[in-house]
Write a structure and sequence with these properties.
Elements (H helix, E strand, L loop, with lengths): L9 H4 L8 H15 L5 H13 L4 H19 L2
Helix pairs in contact: 2-3, 3-4
């Protein structure tokens, strides 16, 4: 299936492109954090990504889980 400009849509290519593993995504996010955002703690990034991964089927639950991860981090930092 192509749009009018001849660009393939995701449904055409999803069987061709390999699905990234969870480890690949975590590694890429950590590489980016380390290079561009070194002040963001690695454990905070991991907690946020885990909250998202564990709740892929429910955005509102994922949002609350990310908020909890942030609150936990901020409460530890405030001590």
């Amino acid at each position: 299936m192509s749009d009018t400009a001849g660009v393939e849509l995701a449904s055409d290519t999803e069987h061709i492109l390999p699905q990234a593993s969870v480890e690949d995504v975590l590694r890429a996010a950590e590489d980016l954090r380390e290079a561009e955002f070194p002040d963001v703690p690695a454990d905070l990034l991991e907690a946020v990504l885990s909250a998202e991964r564990d709740n892929l089927d429910n955005a509102s639950v994922a949002t609350r889980a990310v908020a909890r991860a942030m609150e936990d981090y901020l409460s530890r930092e405030g001590q």
